[in-house]
Design goal:
The chain has 6 helices and 5 strands. It is α/β, with parallel strands linked by helices. It has a 5-stranded parallel sheet. The chain is globular, with a radius of gyration of 15 Å.
Length: 170
């Protein structure tokens, strides 16, 4: 199975999912969701990525991940709104791209890694077999320390864990 992942939607601080691509306020974005997901087939799934490295930049979304996963209630709100979003637009999975949990300079707090594990373990109960889950992990040791990948793997709740690799041509 091949997955095509649309980048990026941004979650709101209250745990809800957005209706538009980041920074965009155009109805054409809704059409892009549908155009993207219309490409799905028996051999191609269409997923949506949430977050991204700039999600933790100074501004409105800086602490959004931390806020979204900090309590069972906020995680439940996030999961329910994500299911509604994916159902409405036809996505078949999601990639959680939180690159800086527990990194204070990037909006993180102590406890983020454990709360991310809770989120990943709680998602399949709501997703069932209808939606897939992946998590993007930081590619370097400094930021990878804010994750607990072994606990996420052992939960057997992640369809795949992908490592973000950036390639530069000199």
């Amino acid at each position: 199975m091949v997955m095509m992942i649309a980048d990026f939607i941004l979650g709101r601080k209250d745990g809800g999912c957005p209706l538009f691509w980041p920074g965009a306020k155009y109805r054409a974005d809704v059409e892009q969701y549908r155009e993207f997901t219309s490409r799905a087939s028996n051999s191609l799934q269409t997923w949506v990525a949430i977050g991204g490295w700039s999600f933790s930049d100074p501004g409105a979304t800086r602490t959004a991940w931390t806020d979204m996963v900090s309590t069972e209630m906020s995680r439940s709100t996030f999961i329910d709104s994500l299911v509604a979003f994916m159902t409405q637009y036809g996505f078949t999975g999601t990639d959680l791209d939180w690159e800086y949990p527990e990194t204070e300079s990037r909006g993180g707090r102590k406890g983020d890694a454990g709360n991310l594990v809770h989120l990943v373990k709680e998602m399949p109960a709501v997703f069932g077999s209808k939606f897939g889950i992946s998590v993007t992990l930081a590619p370097d040791y400094w930021y990878l320390r804010g994750f607990k990948p072994k606990e996420m793997e052992l939960s057997r709740n992640i369809a795949l864990t992908n490592y973000l690799l950036l390639t530069c041509r000199w």
